[in-house]
């Protein structure tokens, strides 16, 4: 897994909301957004999406040691609760042409899903359980190391 930051150096300031290129149809037939090789600050090695999440449920609840990801609300909306070990921030995603870049070493939880929402995740590596930190107390120790 490639990583450009040491995990304990990631802060909420390294989280970034980016514009996904949007092409509007001149005849009013809708929009098209494109993620190509230079859209994200990492190579995409895995894609997954969350859907049919009840509004009172939460997803995530973990951090990654090396993996980076971009979350996009391709339909509907949801909140991303981020924590860097010291500070907490909530980002509301509700536009399919906005992507939230979450570097490694940032705790994330997804909540407040609207009806019909779809969260697309573009990630920097394939699934590897050893990259996950699933307990918040362990995450805080990881950040201090």
From TrEMBL:
<dbReference type="InterPro" id="IPR011051">
    <property type="entry name" value="RmlC_Cupin_sf"/>
</dbReference>
<protein>
    <submittedName>
        <fullName>WxcM-like domain-containing protein</fullName>
    </submittedName>
</protein>
<dbReference type="InterPro" id="IPR014710">
    <property type="entry name" value="RmlC-like_jellyroll"/>
</dbReference>
<feature type="domain" description="Sugar 3,4-ketoisomerase QdtA cupin">
    <location>
        <begin position="14"/>
        <end position="142"/>
    </location>
</feature>
<dbReference type="InterPro" id="IPR008894">
    <property type="entry name" value="QdtA_cupin_dom"/>
</dbReference>
<dbReference type="Pfam" id="PF05523">
    <property type="entry name" value="FdtA"/>
</dbReference>
């Amino acid at each position: 897994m490639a990583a450009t930051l040491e995990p304990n150096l990631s802060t909420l300031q390294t989280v970034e909301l980016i514009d996904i290129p949007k092409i509007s149809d001149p005849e009013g037939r809708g929009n098209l957004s494109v993620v190509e090789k230079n859209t994200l600050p990492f190579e995409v090695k895995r894609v997954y999406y969350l859907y049919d999440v009840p509004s009172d449920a939460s997803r995530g609840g973990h951090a990654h040691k090396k993996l980076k990801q971009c979350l996009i609300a391709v339909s509907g909306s949801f909140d991303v609760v981020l924590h860097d070990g010291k500070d907490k921030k909530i980002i509301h995603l509700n536009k399919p042409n906005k992507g939230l870049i979450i570097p490694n070493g940032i705790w994330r939880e997804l909540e407040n899903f609207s009806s019909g929402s779809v969260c697309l995740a573009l990630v920097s590596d394939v699934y590897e359980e050893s990259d996950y930190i699933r307990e918040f107390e362990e995450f805080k120790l990881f950040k201090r190391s």
